[in-house]
Design brief:
The chain is α+β, with helices and mostly antiparallel strands. The protein is about 70% helix and about 10% strand. It is built from 11 helices and 4 strands. It has a 4-stranded antiparallel beta sheet with strand order 2-3-1-4. β2 and β3 form a beta hairpin. α1 crosses α9 and α7 packs antiparallel against α8. The protein is elongated, with a radius of gyration of 27 Å. About 35% of the residues are buried.
Length: about 325
């Protein structure tokens, strides 16, 4: 299908390419999740977080060796910056507060740090299990609410394709976390739930326009569902891009200048917002168009005015011209 308006961007005609890109990204995400796995923060599995500050010229290796000598097994040490001073954020699997404080004190003393240069936060495994259950429940309720809302407002096919786009965004985002081994914390979960809202917004804006045009549009040009969907995406794409840019600016600022808590949230938001914008026109609308075109009404119009019909007409004209030339 060729675009009927000179300035109409051909999104739907390239649906196979866009869906192929999404399929590759989803496969890569699944591979990352299966073979590398997610790294969960102590809030989910329990453990201890030690925040060292004013560490001066102490290296990661020195900090890790001090903790191991103090009795910690496999501590995860990351550099940090607090109010312009260097430090370390350490995560361990120790769930007993007294043991964790003793290890931190021993490590700090061996490195020449004072009691004021570190804080210890210990979370038990029960709290982590409750956080996991609450997060999964929140996702489940959100998915069901989305299906119900879109089905009531539009139709069931739109609700399912919207959910597929949401799962596409969430799965790829988690895949990035698996490949980069970035810890998944409650802040990341909050970001993922927020991503669902942004992704759903972009998708519903397009679905709303497609639904209106499918009911009312009769311009003699956009007759098939593919044509109507492509025209509708072009009508709202500028607003979608503007919304994405304006929301990305504060997210990038949080990622660049925020603390570790804000960065956890901002990193997931950055990935999710970009994916949410992309999936609205590259996954949700193309899948909906493919599904709707199999309905008798739209299948008939596709055969008459769509890609295959256009090819047939061109071939017929070409054969007619060839026959006439040979007779002359």
């Amino acid at each position: 299908m060729r675009s009927h308006f000179k300035h109409e961007i051909a999104f739907i005609p390239h649906r196979k390419q866009m869906l192929s890109v999404s399929l590759v990204l989803v496969i890569l995400a699944i591979v990352g999740l299966v073979f590398r796995g997610l790294v969960f923060g102590i809030e989910f599995k329990g453990g201890t977080e030690i925040d060292f500050s004013n560490t001066g010229s102490i290296t990661i290796e020195q900090m890790r060796d001090a903790l191991v000598s103090a009795g910690e097994e496999n501590p995860v040490v990351q550099t940090s910056q607090t109010n312009g001073t260097s430090g370390f954020l350490v995560r361990t699997e120790t769930t007993d507060p007294n043991t964790a404080n003793g290890h931190a004190a021993t490590a700090a003393d061996s490195l020449g740090l004072t009691d004021e240069d570190y804080t210890v936060t210990t979370i038990g495994p029960d709290w982590g299990a409750n956080t996991t259950r609450s997060s999964l429940l929140a996702f489940g309720v959100a998915i069901l609410a989305i299906i119900a809302y879109v089905t009531i407002r539009y139709e069931f096919k739109m609700s399912l394709t919207a959910v597929v786009a949401l799962l596409h965004d969430l799965l790829i985002t988690l895949g990035v976390y698996a490949w980069t081994q970035t810890p998944v914390t409650p802040n990341v979960v909050a970001a993922l739930l927020t991503i669902m809202g942004f992704s759903l917004y972009d998708t519903v804006v397009e679905f709303n326009r497609i639904d209106e045009n499918a009911r009312q549009l009769n311009d003699g040009v956009h007759r098939t569902y593919y044509q109507i969907a492509n025209f509708s995406i072009n009508e709202v794409i500028v607003r979608t891009i503007n919304t994405t840019i304006t929301t990305l600016v504060p997210v990038i600022c949080m990622l660049a200048m925020g603390g570790s808590t804000l960065k956890d949230f901002a990193f997931a938001m950055l990935i999710g917002e970009v994916l949410g914008t992309y999936s609205s026109f590259a996954v949700a609308s193309p899948l909906l168009s493919i599904w709707k075109t199999h309905e008798p009404k739209w299948a008939k119009l596709e055969r008459k005015y769509g890609e295959a019909a256009g090819t047939t007409r061109v071939e017929a004209v070409s054969k007619s011209d060839t026959s006439r030339d040979s007779q002359e």
